[in-house]
Amino acid sequence: MIQRILVTGGAGFLGSHLCERLVEQGHDVICLDNFFTSQKSNVVHLLSRPNFELIRHDVTLPIHLEVDQIYNLACPAAPGHYQYNPIKTIKTSVMGSINVLGMAKRCGAKVLQASTSEVYGDPEVHPQTEDYRGSVNPIGIRACYDEGKRVAETIFMDYHRANKVDIRIVRIFNTYGPRMHPYDGRVVSNFIRQSLAGDDLTIFGDGSQTRSFCYRDDLIDAIIGMMNNEEGFIGPVNIGNPDEFTIRELAEKVIDLCGKNNQLVTRPLPSDDPTRRRPDISLAKEKLGWQPKVPLADGLKHTIDWFKSIDLSDYRPPTP
Ligand code: NAD
Ligand code: UDP
Questions:
Q1: Interatomic CA distance for residues 205 and 254, integer angstroms
Q2: Which residues form the NAD(P)-binding domain (predicted)?
Q3: DSSP H/E element including 54
Q4: Whose CA is nearest to atom 13 of ligand 2?
Q5: Are 226 and 288 in contact (CB under 8 A)?
Q6: Which of 174, 211, 255, 264 to mutate to test the pocket of ligand 2 (most atoms within 8 A of CB)?
Q7: Could you read off the pLDDT tens digit of each residue along the chain, which spans 320 residues?
Q8: pTM of the entire structure?
Q9: Do 32 and 96 lie in a common domain?
Q10: 187 C-alpha vs ligand 2 centroid, how far in Å?
């Protein structure tokens, strides 16, 4: 059935792909974004579609819309972006959640929160299962994001228990692909940009820390599956690719796929940088019948091709 669907943060990396997929499925899609970490070019190809609408708005402020489903993705996601204005970051998670939940309550809409593996902080449990409560430094430089997302989960659960709002929570692990902001400072975008330019690749710390990288198409499949699961499974559920790599392995892979000969240089490890991260996706497999299909090398190839196709001067660093 055709739904009226709001995607907050819909012009961003994941949001724009989600909007694209939902428009293709024939839904009436409203993309809401303040363009803090994105630009119109991500969704410009959708503007001519009759079932797509773009609204410039800040999710920390209320808005009245009539919708059936809400995907709440609005929030800067890369460390450099979310640390740029940390108070705004936590406001976006907390007030943004209250605003979309209020809308969902008023409209009887279903609402999905894009949470994060960062709720586990620097995890003592490996791989991370959903029942692990995490190890977050509440006063560190990542807290504006991690704690904001943790509070958002709390608010979602309380609206669900107190007001019977139909919610979904997905905990997204590192996801990459075309349309990542090339200057977001995330490891995949930095390494590809550096390698293609013939620069040294910057390894923070000794490069032995690990991450597990999920390709964006797999992620979009999972969150649409989560929103529409028939059993009313609300999560939280881990969504990510359990193939785990050290940052040094990632650097070597990127250099190889770019066909370059870059050197690696080390830089200080930022504080509170998690030492390892890998999702246990048993719950997603059981409840959603989902598991990722795209191996890292294939996803990186698509991403590298996209980086080759863009003009970097079209992208600017975020402004307040
Ligand atoms: P992104 O920065 O590309 O997208 C976020 C979008 O939200 C941007 O378009 C930005 O302009 C918008 N935005 C930020 N603050 C806003 C505000 N106050 N009002 C309205 N719009 C606002 O990042 P992404 O990687 O696409 O992430 C999307 C969501 O998924 C985020 O909530 C993020 O926390 C979550 N997530 C992403 C990853 C990942 O690896 N990509 C991992 C975990 C969680
Ligand atoms: N990282 C790195 N070089 C870079 C950018 C990041 O070594 O140029 C490291 C970073 O310290 C972290 C990992 O790569 O250990 C992933 O960083 P990213 O910012 O992509 O995501 P997050 O830390 O939020 O998982």
A1: 18
A2: 6-302
A3: strand 52-56
A4: 187
A5: yes
A6: 211
A7: 899 999 999 999 999 999 999 999 999 999 999 999 999 999 999 999 999 999 999 999 999 999 999 999 999 999 889 999 999 999 999 999 999 999 999 999 999 999 999 999 999 999 999 999 999 999 999 999 999 999 999 999 999 999 999 999 999 999 999 999 999 999 999 999 999 999 999 999 999 999 999 999 999 999 999 999 988 999 999 999 999 999 999 999 999 999 999 999 999 999 999 999 999 999 999 999 999 999 999 999 999 999 999 999 888 766 55
A8: 0.97
A9: yes
A10: 5
CA dist 30 to 22, 67, 69, 215, 255, Å? Answer: 10, 9, 10, 24, 39
CATH number at residue 50: 3.40.50.720
Mutate to test the pocket of ligand 2, among 149, 187, 206, 254 (most ligand atoms within 8 A of CB): 187
CATH number of 194's domain: 3.90.25.10
Which residues have a catalytic role annotated?
A: 145
Residue 209 contacts residue 4 (beta carbons within 8 Å)? no
- Please give all residues whose beta carbon lies within 6 A of any atom in ligand 2, as ranges: 78-79, 174, 186-187, 190, 202-204, 209, 211, 247, 269-270, 273
Provide the ipTM.
0.98
Longest dimension (CA), the chain: 57
Same structural domain, 62 and 208: no
